[in-house]
Amino acid sequence: MCYALDMKVARITPVLFAVLLIVSGCACREIHVVEYEVLRVVDGDTFEIFYDGDPTRVRILGIDTPEIRKKQVGALEAKAELERLVQGKIVVLDFAARRKRDNFGRLLANVTVEGLDIGKHLLNTSHAKPYRR
Question: Residue 131 and residue 113: Cα distance in Å, rounded?
């Protein structure tokens, strides 16, 4: 009986190994977490930092807020909330996106301040909606 059990384990082990190898390969991606001071808020989902010596815009991953330039309802409130949360503060950026920049050249990152996930907060307070492509 013990021998039969060993044979089953021997057959399962290569399969389990292959599955773990595939899963770990999918999960391996480069993630950079860095702190920056916010220079200014552009709108409800974008702000500016110094990045590599230049003022650079950061787009918060996973959310979308009303556009100020299109005069959409709630745009100024979303910007004011983001200013309240990040203006002049040190933010932690987690560059976890597949691409580091969007089509407008903005850095793409999850953002936290003092442990608060800014994107989730803006969603929970109805200042943002989930980003849909």
Answer: 21
Active site residue 67: yes
Its pTM stands at 0.74
Closest listed residue to residue 26, CA positions, set 18, 37, 36, 34: 18
Q: What is the pLDDT of residues 44-74, one digit of tens each?
A: 999 999 998 999 999 999 999 999 999 999 9
Q: What is the pLDDT of residues 80-99, one digit of tens each?
A: 999 999 999 999 999 887 88
Question: For strand 107-113 and strand 46-51, is the pairing parallel, antiparallel, or unpaired?
Answer: unpaired
Set 67, 77, 83, 101: catalytic member:
67
Contacts of 18 (CB under 8 A, 6+ apart): none
Running DSSP on this structure, what letter comes out for residue 72?
-
